[in-house]
Amino acid sequence: MAQAKILVVDDENAIRNLIHRFLSKQDYQVEAAEDGKSALATFESFNPDLVILDVNLPDANGYALCQEMQSRTNVFILMLTSRTDEADKVRAFSQGADDYITKPFSLVELGARIGAILKRQRTVTTAEQQCLVFSGLVIDPVRREVKLNDDLVPLTALEFDLLHFLASNPGRVWRRSDLIQQVWDYEYVGDQRVVDVHIGQIRKKIEIDTSQPALIQTVRGVGYKFESPEMAEEAKA
């Protein structure tokens, strides 16, 4: 299997070099950039599988750079920032980031996050290839596409994984910790409200009324469940 290619974008030399050395020892192919302009140039020539992207760059906005890069290759993005506000996390995920880690951070955690993101490149097994169809909602795991009433729904990679997992187990209630273990696929040490952020983003894209979601329902005090329209109709009968 080819080594994954990672681009590190951070204007702090110490952090950039630290991450570069760490990832190189993990047998990744690594390139680095200190600003937005050089990051885009390296991005074009290097074609990375994943970008570790600092939010605050001297000549660019990290969120805008995230969108620009993903519009070109749908690359995985791990945002790296000193910001800890919930609003910043929501903004990062809404712009397409696959994960978000705040400074200071441990290299062990960074490595775990990277490994989990890159696992999403895995080949889908035959048993997982079947499309999930719920009324007007179609989830295609091979193309990693979601359509609602024949319109393509723009989901990030992590949003797709979360929706596909919930929809694969309709009616089952999942705790936030269970979803993190199943979908994020590592021992997440951050705030479990990251699940709420992603659920909220998915609801905006597939629910008719986000104040009364019909598909992804909140089970108070526990977590979330996916309720298919067919199951809801049977329950009413």
How are the elements arranged and paired?
Layout lengths: L4 E5 L3 H13 L3 E5 L2 H11 L3 E5 L7 H12 L2 E6 L4 H9 L4 E4 L4 H12 L13 E3 L2 E4 L4 E4 L2 E3 L3 H12 L5 E2 H9 L9 H13 L9 E4 L3 E4 L2 H8 L1
Parallel strand pairs: 1-2, 1-3, 3-4, 4-5
Antiparallel strand pairs: 6-7, 7-8, 8-9, 10-12, 11-12
Describe the structure.
By secondary structure, the protein is an alpha/beta fold. The protein folds into two domains: 117 residues, Rossmann fold; 111 residues, Winged helix-like DNA-binding domain superfamily/Winged helix DNA-binding domain (Arc Repressor Mutant, subunit A, Orthogonal Bundle), CATH 1.10.10.10. It contains nine helices and twelve strands. Helix 4 packs across helix 8 and helix 6 packs across helix 7. The C terminus is likely disordered.
Features:
5-stranded parallel β-sheet; 12 strands; disordered C terminus; 237 residues; 4-stranded antiparallel β-sheet; Rossmann fold; 42% helix; alpha/beta; Arc Repressor Mutant, subunit A; elongated; 21% strand
